[in-house]
Write a sequence for this structure.
């Protein structure tokens, strides 16, 4: 139940605070006075979209706040508890939306900022809002099916959710199977080429880094004599048989300096340095000796190296890769070939999955169809019972469920029909119902849905549900809204005096202009002001004595009728 709604800087409303009670509350006012802004404020606190254009032109921030009952044990209570919302002392929850003309909007529930989607999910369980757009949606087959599914109950909705998940899985597996079947020939050709490439790679057996190592070895083998001559000369100069080698000269220098170091100890450091240099030279000479001993100038080895490099080059040209790239390609190709080897097994597995899911779809679709047919009968009877109280006693409303090819929502087509009077053929609601009749049908459906589907104290909001209705039918609409308000909180925006007369609480939105600024005020009226407002709705002249007398008659008559 909605206890209070406060709005600031929404459209023409600068500031308003509505205290809402149980029963039927009507909102009236002249066209353009700002009744829509009241609904906009309500939409904001129920998680609706927040267009910045609704912020008053002379304000930076618009604000909407509501105090709402959230029943213990409800899904909404669980969601809010998970979000960290804190209840007021009386168990209610305070919801606030702030909308900036240039800044980001904020949603605060129970003192905790939450995503707008969380608020919307909670509000769906607590408040149901219907406007003229819902009448348009009632003309669509999808909306009619959705309405019947809601009426069928929670077990049916759970089966529908299971069906939709199964349908999505089936579509995914069918797609994969189709892709595999469609690409089978292309894949076989590609794998055949991969096998040929793998055979060529296996014949050569390239090794990581092999091309670089062979290139270096070939360079040495092709210039073996020149390499040998240079290495031998260097060894001879460094530490050969000649008494004037580098090692011999360094040793002579060490000895000469060592004699001098006997008299000047500071030279000892240099003596050690020369001796270290001699040892290094002798080490290099020894390494050159081992290198020369191992130097292979065998022409056969050079031929083998060149042949190997040619084989690797040919393989590289074929595959367009160097040795490392060839090895990476071989690993990827092997995986793809292995997968192709199990191609038929994969196809068989996918076909088995499709058959299994198709059987499951058939089972779930049958359950959905049976539940819809049963619910269609109940909904038709319930709506006809409501229409009898809405000045449509001769109308025959029906819900027809027919078979259709399987789709994402089952194998049923749902169509709501109307026979306006006895003997008239049943026709689709969209064709058979006038605007006023469609309004009453929507109200009858909503009341039917309310019985058993929502707990007492739920809030229903109707925006001009009486559009296209007048005369006696308008009185019947008002009476039925009042009856619904015995167990639920009902808020109605109306232009009809016949509906307003049944209100437990009557709120008037009125506008005034001061210079270039237009503002609206929102107030609850009782007694004489209420009679004047009902008179205005009747005749457009609240000071007309005739209209006032009629208004008083309507108000008193509605009290008796309830």
């Amino acid at each position: 139940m909605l206890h209070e709604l406060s709005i600031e800087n929404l459209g023409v409303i600068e500031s308003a605070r509505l205290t809402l009670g149980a029963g039927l509350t009507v909102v009236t006012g002249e066209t353009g006075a700002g009744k829509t802004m009241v609904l906009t404020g309500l939409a904001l606190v129920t998680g609706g979209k927040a267009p910045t254009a609704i912020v008053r032109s002379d304000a930076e921030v618009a604000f909407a706040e509501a105090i709402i009952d959230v029943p213990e044990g409800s899904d909404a209570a669980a969601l809010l508890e998970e979000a960290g919302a804190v209840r007021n002392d009386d168990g209610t929850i305070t919801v606030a939306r702030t909308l900036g003309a240039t800044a980001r909007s904020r949603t605060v529930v129970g003192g905790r900022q939450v995503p707008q989607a969380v608020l919307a999910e909670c509000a769906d369980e607590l408040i149901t809002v219907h406007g003229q757009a819902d009448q348009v949606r009632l003309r669509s087959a999808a909306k009619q099916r959705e309405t019947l599914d809601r009426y069928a109950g929670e077990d049916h909705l759970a089966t529908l959710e299971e069906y939709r998940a199964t349908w999505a899985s089936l579509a995914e597996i069918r797609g994969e199977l189709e892709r595999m079947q469609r690409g089978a020939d292309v894949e076989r050709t590609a794998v055949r080429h991969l096998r040929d490439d793998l055979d060529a790679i296996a014949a050569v057996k390239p090794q990581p880094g092999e091309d670089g190592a062979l290139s270096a070895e070939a360079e040495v083998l092709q210039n073996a004599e020149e390499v040998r001559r240079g290495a031998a000369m260097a060894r001879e100069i460094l530490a050969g048989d000649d008494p004037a080698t580098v090692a011999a000269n360094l040793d002579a220098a060490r000895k000469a300096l060592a004699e001098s170091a006997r008299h000047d100890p500071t030279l000892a450091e240099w003596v050690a340095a020369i001796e270290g240099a001699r040892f290094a030279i002798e080490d290099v000479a020894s390494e050159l000796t081992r290198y020369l001993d191992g130097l292979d100038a065998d022409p056969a080895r050079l031929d083998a190296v060149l042949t190997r490099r040619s084989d690797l080059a040919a393989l590289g040209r074929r595959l367009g890769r160097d040795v490392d790239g060839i090895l990476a390609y071989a690993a990827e190709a092997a995986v793809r070939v292995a997968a192709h080897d199990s191609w038929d097994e994969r196809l068989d597995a996918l076909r088995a999955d499709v058959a299994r899911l198709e059987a499951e779809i058939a089972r779930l679709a049958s359950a959905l169809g049976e539940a819809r047919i049963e619910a269609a009968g109940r909904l038709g009877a319930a709506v006809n019972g409501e229409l009898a109280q809405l000045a449509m006693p001769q109308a025959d409303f029906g819900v027809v469920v027919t078979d259709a090819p399987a789709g994402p929502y089952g194998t049923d087509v749902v169509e709501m029909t109307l026979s306006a009077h006895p003997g008239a053929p049943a026709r689709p609601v969209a064709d058979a119902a006038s605007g006023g009749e469609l309004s009453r049908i929507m109200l009858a459906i909503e009341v039917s849905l309310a019985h058993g589907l929502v707990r007492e104290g739920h809030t229903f909001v109707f925006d001009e549900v009486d559009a296209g209705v007048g005369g006696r039918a308008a009185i019947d609409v008002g009476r039925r809204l009042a009856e619904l308000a015995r167990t639920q909180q009902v808020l109605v925006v109306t232009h009809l005096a016949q509906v307003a007369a049944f209100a437990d609480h009557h709120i008037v939105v009125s506008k005034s202009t001061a210079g270039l600024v237009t503002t609206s005020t929102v107030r609850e009226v009782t007694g004489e002001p209420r009679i004047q407002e009902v008179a205005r709705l009747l005749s457009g002249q609240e000071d007309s004595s005739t209209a006032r007398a009629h208004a008083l008659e309507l108000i008193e008559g509605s009290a008796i009728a309830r």
Q: What stands out?
A: DSSP finds 20 helices and 15 strands in the chain.
